[in-house]
Amino acid sequence: MNILLINPPNCGRSIPEERYGIDSLKQIFRGEPLALEELAGNLLQHDVRIADLKADPDGLDALLAGFIPDVVGITGVTCEANTMLHLAAKIKDCCASVVVVGGVHASNDPSFFNHPAVDFIVVGLGKKVFADLVSSLEKDETDRGIPGLLKTNPGADLRRPDCCNTVIDLVDDRPPAYHLVSQYRHHYVLEKLNINMGFVASAYGCPHRCSFCCIKGQTGGRYLTKSIEAVLRDIRLLGDIPVIRLVDANTFGDIERAKALGQALIDADLHKQYLADIRSDTVVQYPEMVRQWQQAGLRAVIIGFEGISDASLSVMNKANKASINGEAITILQEMGITIVGDFIIAPDYDEADFARLGEYLDNNTVDLPMITVMTPLPGTDLYPQQKNSIVNHNLDYYTLTNAVTKTKLAEKQFYTLYAELLATSHKNARI
Prior knowledge:
By secondary structure, this protein is of the alpha/beta class. It has 16 helices and 15 strands.
């Protein structure tokens, strides 16, 4: 079968830019579409193409001029959900293909895609499910139940399907089809250093339950790891790309396995540098493991500090302490490992709150602070808590840089202070 997999274009919208001309907060998503490369790697007997519209926003029409797909898969996060539906409608009009949607938003809010332009919705990890669906379409057996798959029924309620979400769903004996994005590869760079960067997944899900996090919908809250052999294989498949971004929500969610992977990277001597996500309490509890990973090539870590006080961390169910964050910063700074730190500001921030976060960043060496706005995304524990407070229901604005609940300050003042804080914190950023 002819199969087309689509990564939507950058389509998130910006309130501060549209209303107040503040264009420094708009979020741009970069990096290769690893989820689609994983799907394609499990479709070896088919003619599969990937259209990365983030790298080539106008490339779809040219591709469709010479390739008529039987099946189209579209993935995306919440701020891309409306665009996913637009793409689905376009495909239906021009090709009458079977249209399948998946990804984070589809997993957390499948009913959003119960639309005439969509035929099937994948809930959870899609690598096995999508291949099973294609096989069923070939045999005209789509009525048989496939765990994790929903057939749309516009106008009727959809019941969330049963999902396995086990290591079987990772299909890690089939590597990602990295070659299918070779024409886009020059776009996938670490922008500040202009270094090519490749994506590898070593784990899915997270064992923690932060209230703002939406990833649990894809694994049912489980933490699943690929085999160490599969991780090394995928890194090698990226050839001479010097920097590898491990895109796991938490590469170190299983400490013993993380130690084993670190040692395997040392033994393999792949001459790569790595960026990986880690919790601050993991750094503090297991500094020897971090040193091991530094020997393996760990260059930078992404840490969700989120808040600067125990009270703010408790509200987010972060299960951590501000003092632990400080200890982790000191440990990593002494090791010379770059820190990319995530912080979340709340719509009820006032001038004093912005000033406190600015002072914290002045006094703590976070090499690249990433500051987002608390957003009640569907599928998070935060969503039902704040659902009735949401004032902006257009998902295009759910980029994590817009306030979709009412701000305490006048809106323009909120975004002005936000932009000033971001500019100040990035002035001396290092990575």
